[in-house]
């Protein structure tokens, strides 16, 4: 945001959420209390899962319930929480956490 405000990056440079990320935010995301730092619209938080053990499910948006089911299966994987603005396409990685399944 500092680079945008200083004029070194354009809004187009940082408002780059693709169709899949926006669709995931719409259908799998949850409303955030935060507003977009660029346009002021409400953000949506979307969780993405990564890890070889997920097979075809890797790199997809998942609900909290689905993530809990993966943990219950004993899987270990990474969960990225991304905040997405549907109005201007701004997005930002909030957290990256490792989920550990019960062995």
Description:
- There is one protein chain.
- The protein is α+β, with helices and mostly antiparallel strands and 103 residues long.
- It has one domain.
- The chain contains four helices and five strands, in the order αααβββαββ.
- Strands 1, 2, 3, 4 and 5 form a five-stranded antiparallel beta sheet that branches.
- A hairpin with a 6-residue loop joins strand 1 and strand 2.
- The N and C termini lie far apart (42 Å).
- This is DUF5318 domain-containing protein.
Provide a quick synopsis of the model:
The chain has helices spanning 2-5, 11-14, 19-27, 64-72, and strands spanning 30-35, 42-50, 60-61, 77-84, 91-99.
> Order of helices and strands, N to C?
HHHEEEHEE
State the share of residues found in helices, binned by percent.
Answer: 25-40%
Strand percent estimate: 25-35%
Q: What characteristic shape results from the CA principal axes?
A: elongated
- Major sheet characteristics: 5 strands, antiparallel
| Count of discrete alpha- or pi-helical segments spanning 4 or more residues | 4
Q: Structural class of the helices, strands and pairings?
A: alpha+beta
Low-confidence runs: none
The counted number of beta strands is 5
Q: Can you give the mean pLDDT?
A: 91
Q: What's the domain count?
A: 1
| Cα Rg | 15 Å
The N- to C-terminal Cα distance equals: 42 Å
